[in-house]
Design brief:
Layout lengths: L1 H22 L3 E9 L3 E8 L9 E5 L9 E4 L9 E6 L3 H9 L17 E6 L11 E7 L4 H17 L7 E8 L6 H16 L6 E7 L4 H9 L16 E2 L4 H11 L4 E7 L2 H13 L9 E7 L2
Parallel strand pairs: 7-8, 7-11, 8-9, 9-10, 11-12
Antiparallel strand pairs: 1-2, 2-5, 3-4, 3-6
InterPro entries: Cyt_b245_heavy_chain, FAD-bd_8, FAD-bd_FR_type, Fe_red_NAD-bd_6, FNR_nucleotide-bd, RBOH/FRE, Riboflavin_synthase-like_b-brl
Protein name: NADPH oxidase 2
GO biological process, one term: monoatomic ion transmembrane transport
Length: about 300
């Protein structure tokens, strides 16, 4: 038995030593941004840190807990000179981090007052393959939208730098969210992308649909009253917020009709139930002919 145990134990010990070494490397918090509804953005720098789109890191804050590591998806792009995460304040550890960063104080906080942060990673996910396709469907459910913040930022940087060499030509983005509280920080990013795409006369590059799934009758009535306004009353975007859930069969058939003979990447960050639905639709709407349209499903669950 010991011959079978020694090998895995040695690999586990090596992994723990690497994590300990990484945790001792200096991480500098360069900026803390407080977003509405108790969501904070931590912008950090670490020597030698390299990332790809959609990756995640483990974070430890000794001022809150000396042993706890928590995973967070990176919301910055590889082209930026810092890496960032967005933290929603929903529990004891996140509340402790919120207070340790001085977010509960009104006065300006000096950089030297920021708590020590340990970072392990980054680690890869399926979202890294986004740039392998000409057409992609990005589907985020709730907080599952965070990896696509990194993707959309990186796409924009690559598009501005050299659009002719960018293989990715069309993005269909779907965000399913229960309530309006989660729209705040991500809507700002979409507004910026929307404005910049229009300036370059390529508004069709990004098609996005935001679905508010936790709606009630009063919200639906409010939606109808303001539907004719130029911008959506919830997100401030030109694309109106939709109520309910998408009809995935219609969405897949429409996209398949617009991109015949293409390999279309379908990327999901969301619950297992939605993954099953999208996987089934990807199979049903892919043609048997190798020259026909094919949907390639990729997922990460939370």
């Amino acid at each position: 038995t010991w011959k079978w145990v020694v090998g895995p134990m040695f690999l586990y010990l090596c992994e723990r030593l690497v994590r300990f070494w990484r945790s001792q490397q200096k991480v500098e918090i360069t900026k803390v941004v407080i977003h509405p509804f108790k969501t904070i953005e931590l912008q950090m720098m670490k020597k030698g840190f390299k990332m790809e789109v959609g990756q995640y890191i483990f974070v430890k804050c000794p001022a809150v807990s000396k042993l706890e590591w928590h995973p967070f998806t990176l919301t910055s792009a590889p082209e930026e000179d810092y890496f960032s995460i967005h933290v929603r304040i929903v529990g004891d550890w996140t509340e402790g981090l919120f207070n340790a960063c001085g977010c509960d104080k009104q006065e300006f906080q000096e950089a030297w007052k920021m708590p020590k942060i340990a970072v392990d990673g980054p680690f890869g996910t399926a979202s890294e393959d986004v740039f392998s396709y000409e057409t992609v469907m990005l589907v985020g459910a709730g907080i599952g939208v965070t990896p696509f913040a990194s993707v959309l930022k990186s796409v924009w940087y690559k598009y501005c730098h050299d659009a002719t060499n960018l293989k990715l030509k069309k993005i269909y983005f779907y965000w399913l969210c229960r309530d309006t509280h989660a729209f705040e920080w991500f809507a700002d990013l979409l507004q910026s992308l929307e404005a910049q795409m229009q300036e370059r006369n390529n508004a069709g590059f990004l098609s996005y649909n935001i679905y508010l799934t936790g709606w009630d009758e009063s919200q639906a009535t409010h939606f109808v009253v303001h539907h004719e306004e130029e911008k959506d009353v919830i997100t401030g975007l030109k694309q109106k917020t939709l109520y309910g859930r998408p009809n995935w069969e219609n969405e897949f058939k429409t996209i398949a009709g617009q991109h015949p003979g293409s390999r279309i990447g379908v990327f999901l960050c969301g619950p297992e139930g939605l993954a099953d639905t999208l996987n089934k639709q990807s199979i049903n709407n892919s043609e048997a002919d190798p020259r026909g349209v094919h949907f390639i499903f990729n997922k990460e669950n939370f």
